[in-house]
Design a protein that fits this description.
This protein is of the alpha/beta class and 296 residues long. The chain has an eight-stranded parallel beta sheet with strand order 1-2-3-4-5-6-7-8. Helix 5 packs parallel to helix 6. It is globular and about 50 Å long.
């Protein structure tokens, strides 16, 4: 029954990446200096490889944008959120050739200060981004979720009405965890009540605290990025089935760590209770938070 429901939903995936190579090692260059253990540095294709089986390795192609659209069509993904970097030929190609299929996120490092703010403004005014993202434990140096360096990012996101997506919980790469403790989200929501804050990458082992904070703060959300559906926390599923139906948003992790075949092979086994919950999770919540056209 769930598989049939999923097939009839125009899915919004809030974490995909336009490939840049067969392995996409280029994505991780910015925080490689943070790594210290030899296995991460010398052996892993991606810094959290120990957590994922069968990290996708792609065939070489001259058009990764068209390749990604083909994968989206195969699995019923209507719209994908992908990264935008200034000068990115792939992002410009995606926007030009498939304007209805992609929305764009601007990753920033708050260590850049006002330059990060300027980058967000340019990306918004010149490219039409839909969100901003920060990986606190992957910044160099690391930047805690509630750090004053983050305040500039949160402020401009409020001004431009852009959701901010922030990694929370123990990071996959072998770097210190403290900057991503879920408790740090509380003060951010207090000082920036209009900020749409989306917690990325699961929040474990503090997922129950994440739920408590979502009950408390109206504009706080949770996405399932970087989690195979088999491992969605049970408390998150229970929350979506009850008071949190409007708060849980689907995000995959292709091709960084999970194949779409694995995601959509496991997804029908997730115990969401009815079609309404499935539709909100896979489509409607993202369209509301990211101001996307409502699907027919």
């Amino acid at each position: 029954m769930s598989a049939e429901i999923i097939r009839n939903i125009p899915i919004v995936d809030l974490m995909m990446g336009i490939p840049v190579s067969e392995t996409n090692k280029e994505w991780y260059e910015s925080f490689l200096p943070l790594l210290k253990d030899k296995e991460s540095i010398d052996q892993f294709k991606m810094p959290a490889e120990y957590m994922f089986r069968d990290v996708p390795v792609l065939d070489k192609t001259d058009d990764y944008v068209a390749f990604l659209v083909g994968k989206m069509d195969e699995h019923g993904i209507d719209i994908a959120l992908v990264g935008y970097f200034e000068g990115s030929e792939a992002a410009h190609s995606a926007k030009q050739h498939y304007p209805q299929r992609f929305i764009f996120d601007c990753p920033v490092d708050p260590n850049d200060g006002v330059d990060a703010v300027r980058a967000i403004r340019r990306a918004h005014d010149e490219f039409g981004i839909h969100s901003v993202s920060v990986f606190p434990c992957g910044c160099n140096p690391q930047v805690p979720i509630d750090d004053r360096r983050m305040w500039l990012v949160y402020g401009v996101c409020c001004e431009l009405d852009l959701p901010v997506l922030v990694n929370v919980g123990v990071p996959g790469p072998r770097v210190p965890t403290a900057p991503q403790k879920v408790e740090l989200v509380d003060e951010v929501c207090y000082h920036f009540p209009e900020l749409k804050f989306v917690m990325r990458h699961g929040g474990e082992p503090w997922q129950d605290l994440a739920i408590k904070l979502m009950l408390k703060w109206p504009n706080l959300y949770y996405s399932t990025s970087a989690f195979a559906p088999k491992y969605y926390p049970q408390s998150i599923i229970d929350y979506a089935n009850t008071r949190g139906a409007d708060k849980i948003l689907y995000a995959g992790y292709y091709p960084a760590g999970l194949s779409l075949e694995r995601i959509f092979g496991e997804l029908p086994e997730v115990a969401f209770k009815n079609e309404t919950v499935w539709r909100k999770f896979l489509s409607d919540n993202a369209r509301r938070v990211f101001k996307l056209p409502h699907a027919a």
